[in-house]
């Protein structure tokens, strides 16, 4: 019975791994990894590591993979051309070489494992002690023998969290965007850069309230390069959220506004 | 079951992950392959832990999961930052640190 | 205060003058630098007089004093100390040097007044006087060599004073190089002597020379000849004389001071000071005498042919120094030094007068363009005339007595020295001829345009003068000789200096009148140990005095006939004896010989070293090779930094595989 389960889980593991590597669409690769993780959890269970299996599913497959999904969705689906790259890095040669090389590595490892190198593998190993791999034992170990490791790991998590926030934030810090109004932002579609736009729903947009919404603050007109230097009144820019739901940008956007080049993309999330 | 089986599976996954790291150009996928390698290591750890009846391997694997999570967070943060700067998400294009 | 203290003060004042002028160059305005410099040298002269009085107050056999300030290096058998030797010879030299220098400083206050490098000039000039005083006061070979080198350096600085002039810088380099050749001789000579005596101190050396060396011992002769080489270079004797005419590129006060009165007499001083050595090596002394005689003749003939006013006077200097060298090498120390003193007076006077004329000619120095300045320059003309009469040896001026004394003392040696005596009088004839050639050409005849202008009271001025040698325009901003010209008639300080010198030139003979011999008595403590220090026999004295006077007058008469009475005579003679004329006007081809023998090969070696060896071998192979190797290596290593993440990952995994393979194989 255990052998059957092992083989099913093993095939799942390897299939997931292959899927990660071989599929072109990164989203599918993420899904492949999820499958791989779940199968791996099954293998862990077979090895009597219940807590680790559960942690694997909850943390790894549950949280980390979700993070992957988010980022893949944000970054977009950039298919990778199978044939070489623009940059002469060897392209196909590198792929073939890498595959061969990893094959060689695999052979080497198998020889190491299955050859006479690791005699201990053939032994019977330790007997099973009840409570082995249970949360009790893990917790006990974590809080006594591996306390320092536990604390350092939590510290590491803190650093990673701060680091991720710092790396991924918009330039200029975490303060709110200043309330400004500019003609360009008025003329721009409210769903610019939003998910709806990305998804491509073509429902017409009622756009923002009255087209004649006061623009006299922008008396300087289009010439102003930095609209946010404008000390406008408390004219809150009509949040796209009010209309964006279901609405989409006009067909022919405002390519100029979109291409403005700096990090003033108001739209979206 | 012989531990060797699990170790072979671990080796397989490790090598697949290594091939993926060397082959793919999308950094997100490279990170995924790195996860593969880490998981392979985890599997080996758990296998040995079971062999010796010592839960230390499981603790080790737990911590590896923690580290993997952190590394993913930071790595993906990097990718988001790269995306925001309108650079191509392709490791072959991101090679300014060359000698 | 003791005599040595006064002597240290004599050294201190010019040094202080240099430092003060040099450091305060920004704050010194107008002529103040000149007055400070003159005051410093005048103070030095006052101290020299005090030193003289002090030393005369000692008993005659206690008049050789030394004083040491500190040791430079008193180890491994070398006793190098900062010592001065104060004896009648040094006192005579410092009196002459500081006195004439003070007068020349006074002259320069006005002469250089409009020059932009006025302050620099005076600091250099003071430095030169300090060096010369150091040289003559030195009490051992070390201080002598130091002073010698400083004097050479000061000469270089002053010759190329107008540094934008190509000819001036070339002349400065030439002078310096030839002086360095002499310096090498001096140092090597010192070594040869030191090797045997084991001491650098003068007094110790002199006392031990008869015990350490036998007469004409080869080492001593070699050493003395090397010392003579130094003397010849400094005093412009053949064959190291080619720098002196070119040195006339410097301002006229420089020519007057350095190249007439002081620096070129350093060689004479050297031989006089080291006379015990030379007396123990008569072979070397004879070499000196012969060279001196040769020089006085060759220089005299060249002076007949050249047309640059200052160069005529320069060759005259060379010739007169030849007399002095001949004299001191033959044991006529008192006579040689007496001639040194009188020569300083009238030669400086001649140069000053020449400076005045050149200023009136707006920088033009060629005799061909001068004429008829008699009426236009009522002060300069008599000054030059007095100098010329003294130089030609017309009684009762100073030059007459000194020159005759030298020749007489040379003849007193007997034997082949009589030939030198005769040749000396031949030289005297040449002297008179070329001196008055110069005077007649400059002052007689039709006044040239500049003279006529000056008669009307207007000083001639050229807007853009040209360097006749290279035809490039002069940089009147940096000098040559400044936008304004100062002639004696208009400047009081120039007149004052020239007047004093003229008086000295006239009455200077009184210092060593034939029967009175003041100078001889004064110098006795210094030369008492010399075997040649005897009063000359009386017989030839009267005869030679008469001969001397007759020759002088004869020379003037010849010059008058050729250049005043029948002006075309010179041109006729030139054509008739054109090979001879060419030999003289090309300075006996010494410059060309030296150029072919030394200058060109050296230049070739330098070019070869720079272009072939340096560029190809050192730069290309050694340096370039090393950098190429490093660059190739770093390029190879740099290839590992491709920037591709996958490449790095691949390397990592490769390394991992290698390590595990290693462990696998090991187990």
Which terms would index this structure?
heterotrimer; A: 269 residues; mainly alpha; 52% helix; B: 99 residues; Helix Hairpins
Rounded mean pLDDT of chain B is 89
Largest sheet of chain B: none
Q: State the distance separating the first and last CA atoms of chain B.
A: 51 Å
- Tally of DSSP β-strands of chain B: 0
User: Roughly how much helix do the residues of chain B carry, as a percent range?
Assistant: over 70%
Q: Please state the CA-atom Rg of chain B, rounded to the nearest Å.
A: 17 Å
Query: How many helices of chain A in DSSP terms?
Result: 10
- In CATH terms, what is the architecture of the domain at 26-92 in chain B? Orthogonal Bundle
What string, H for helix and E for strand, traces the elements of chain A in order? HHHHHHHHHH
Query: Strand percentage of chain A, roughly?
Result: under 5%
Total of DSSP H or I helical runs spanning 4+ residues of chain B: 3
Oligomer state of the chains in this structure: heterotrimer
Structural class of chain A: mainly alpha
Poorly predicted spans of chain A = 205-269
Judging from the principal axes of the Cα atoms, what is the shape of chain B?
elongated
Describe it for me?
The complex is a heterotrimer of chains A (269), B (99) and C (667). With 269 residues, chain A is an all-alpha fold. Chain A has helices spanning 2-22, 26-46, 50-75, 92-114, 135-143, 147-168, 183-187, 195-199, 240-244, 255-258. In chain A, α1 packs antiparallel against α2 (26-46) and α2 runs antiparallel to α3. Chain A starts with a helix and ends in an 11-residue tail after the last helix. Chain B has a domain at 26-92: Orthogonal Bundle (Helix Hairpins), CATH 1.10.287. Helix content of chain B is 77%, strand content 0%. Chain B is built from 3 helices and no strands. With 667 residues, chain C is mostly helical. Chain C has 2 domains: 3-585, no CATH class; 591-666, no CATH class. In chain C, strands 1-2 form a two-stranded antiparallel ribbon. In chain C, a hairpin with a 2-residue loop joins β1 (65-75) and β2. The N and C termini of chain C lie far apart (100 Å). The model of chain C has no long low-confidence stretch (mean pLDDT 87). At the A-C interface, α4 of A face α26 of C.
Summarize the structure.
The complex is a heterotrimer of chains A (269), B (99) and C (667). Chain A is built from ten helices and no strands.
């Amino acid at each position: 019975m255990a052998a059957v389960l092992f083989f099913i889980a093993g095939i799942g593991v390897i299939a997931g791994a292959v899927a990660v590597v071989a599929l072109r669409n990164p989203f599918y690769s993420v899904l492949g990894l999820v499958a791989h993780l779940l199968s791996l959890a099954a293998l862990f269970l077979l090895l009597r590591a219940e807590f680790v299996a559960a942690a694997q599913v909850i943390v790894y497959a549950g949280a980390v993979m979700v993070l992957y999904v988010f980022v893949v969705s944000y970054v977009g689906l950039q298919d990778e051309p199978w044939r070489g790259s623009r940059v002469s890095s060897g392209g196909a040669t590198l792929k073939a070489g890498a595959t061969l090389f990893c094959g060689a590595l695999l052979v080497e490892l198998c020889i190491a494992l299955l050859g006479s190198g690791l005699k201990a593998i053939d032994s019977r190993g330790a007997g099973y002690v009840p409570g082995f791999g249970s949360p009790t034992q893990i917790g006990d170990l974590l809080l006594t023998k591996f306390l320092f490791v536990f604390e350092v790991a939590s510290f590491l998590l803190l650093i990673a969290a701060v680091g991720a926030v710092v790396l991924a934030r918009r330039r200029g810090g975490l303060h709110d965007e200043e309330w400004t109004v500019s003609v360009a932002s008025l003329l721009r579609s409210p769903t610019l850069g939003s998910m709806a736009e990305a998804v491509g729903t073509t429902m017409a947009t009622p756009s923002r309230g009255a087209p004649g919404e006061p623009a006299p603050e922008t008396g300087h007109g289009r010439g102003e390069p930095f609209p946010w230097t404008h000390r406008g009144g408390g004219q809150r820019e009509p949040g796209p959220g009010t209309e964006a739901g279901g609405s989409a940008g006009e067909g022919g956007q405002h390519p100029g506004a979109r291409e403005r080049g700096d990090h003033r993309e108001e739209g979206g999330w | 079951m012989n531990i060797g089986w699990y170790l072979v599976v671990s080796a397989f996954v490790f090598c697949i992950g290594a091939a993926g790291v060397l082959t793919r150009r999308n950094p997100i996928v490279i990170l995924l392959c790195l996860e593969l390698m880490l998981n392979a290591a985890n599997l080996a750890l758990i296998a040995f832990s079971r062999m010796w009846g010592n839960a230390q391997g499981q603790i080790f694997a737990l911590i590896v999961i923690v580290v993997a999570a952190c590394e993913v967070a930071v790595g993906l943060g990097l990718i988001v930052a790269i995306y925001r700067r309108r650079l191509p998400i392709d490791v072959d294009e991101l090679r300014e640190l060359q000698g | 205060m003791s005599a040595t203290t006064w002597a240290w003060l004599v050294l201190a004042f010019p040094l202080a003058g240099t430092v003060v002028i040099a450091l305060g160059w920004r704050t010194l305005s107008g002529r103040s630098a000149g007055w400070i410099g003159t005051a410093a040298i005048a103070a030095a002269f006052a101290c020299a007089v005090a030193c003289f009085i002090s030393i005369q107050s000692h008993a005659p056999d206690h008049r050789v004093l030394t004083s040491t300030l500190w040791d430079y290096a008193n180890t491994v058998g070398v006793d190098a100390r900062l010592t001065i030797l104060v004896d009648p010879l040094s006192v005579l030299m410092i009196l002459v040097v500081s006195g004439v220098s003070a007068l020349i400083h006074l002259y320069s206050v006005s002469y250089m007044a409009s020059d932009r490098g006025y302050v620099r000039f005076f600091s250099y000039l003071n430095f030169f006087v300090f060096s010369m005083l150091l040289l003559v006061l030195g009490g051992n070979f070390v201080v002598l060599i130091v002073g010698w080198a400083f004097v050479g350096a000061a000469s270089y600085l002053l010759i190329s004073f107008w540094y934008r002039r190509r000819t001036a810088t070339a002349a400065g380099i030439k002078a310096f190089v030839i002086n360095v050749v002499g310096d090498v001789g001096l140092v090597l000579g010192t070594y040869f002597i030191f090797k045997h005596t084991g001491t650098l101190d003068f007094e110790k050396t002199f006392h031990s020379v008869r015990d350490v060396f036998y007469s004409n011992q080869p080492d001593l002769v070699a050493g003395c000849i090397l010392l003579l080489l130094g003397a010849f270079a400094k005093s412009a004797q053949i064959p190291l004389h080619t720098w002196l005419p070119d040195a006339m590129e410097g301002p006229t006060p420089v020519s007057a001071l350095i190249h007439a009165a002081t620096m070129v007499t350093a060689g004479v001083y050297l031989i006089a000071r080291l006379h015990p050595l030379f007396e123990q090596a008569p072979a070397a002394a004879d070499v000196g005498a012969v060279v001196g005689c040769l020089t006085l003749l060759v220089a005299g003939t060249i002076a007949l042919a050249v047309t640059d006013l200052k160069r005529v006077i320069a060759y005259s200097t060379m010739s007169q120094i030849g007399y002095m060298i001949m004299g001191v090498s033959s044991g006529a120390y008192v006579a040689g030094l007496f001639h040194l003193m009188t020569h300083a007076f009238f030669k400086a006077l001649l140069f000053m007068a020449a400076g005045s004329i050149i200023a009136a000619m707006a920088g033009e120095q060629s005799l061909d363009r001068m004429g008829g300045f008699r009426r236009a320059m009522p002060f300069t003309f008599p000054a030059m005339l007095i100098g010329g009469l003294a130089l030609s040896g017309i009684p009762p001026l100073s030059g007459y007595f000194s020159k005759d004394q030298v020749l007489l003392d040379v003849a007193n040696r007997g034997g082949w020295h009589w030939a030198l005596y005769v040749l000396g009088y031949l030289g005297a004839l040449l002297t008179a001829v070329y001196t008055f050639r110069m005077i007649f050409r400059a002052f007689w005849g039709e006044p040239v345009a500049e003279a006529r202008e000056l008669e009307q009271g207007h000083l001639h001025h050229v807007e853009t003068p040209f360097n006749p040698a290279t035809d490039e325009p002069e940089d009147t901003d940096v000098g040559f000789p400044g936008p304004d010209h100062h002639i004696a008639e208009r400047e009081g300080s120039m007149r004052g200096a020239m007047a004093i010198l003229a008086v000295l030139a006239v009455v200077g003979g009184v210092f060593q009148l034939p029967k009175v011999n003041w100078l001889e008595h004064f110098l006795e403590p210094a030369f008492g140990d010399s075997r040649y220090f005897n009063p000359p026999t009386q017989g030839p004295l009267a005869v030679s005095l008469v001969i001397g006077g007759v020759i002088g007058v004869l020379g003037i008469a010849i010059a008058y006939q050729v250049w005043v009475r029948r002006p075309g005579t010179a041109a006729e003679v030139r054509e008739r004896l054109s090979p001879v004329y060419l030999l003289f006007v090309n300075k006996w081809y010494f410059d060309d010989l030296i150029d072919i023998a030394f200058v060109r090969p050296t230049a070739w070696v330098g070019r070869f070293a720079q272009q072939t060896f340096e560029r190809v071998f050192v730069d290309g192979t050694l340096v370039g090779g090393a950098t190429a190797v490093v660059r190739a290596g770093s390029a190879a290593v740099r290839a590992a930094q491709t920037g591709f993440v996958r490449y790095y990952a691949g390397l990592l995994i490769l390394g991992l595989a290698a390590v595990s393979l290693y462990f696998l194989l090991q187990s």
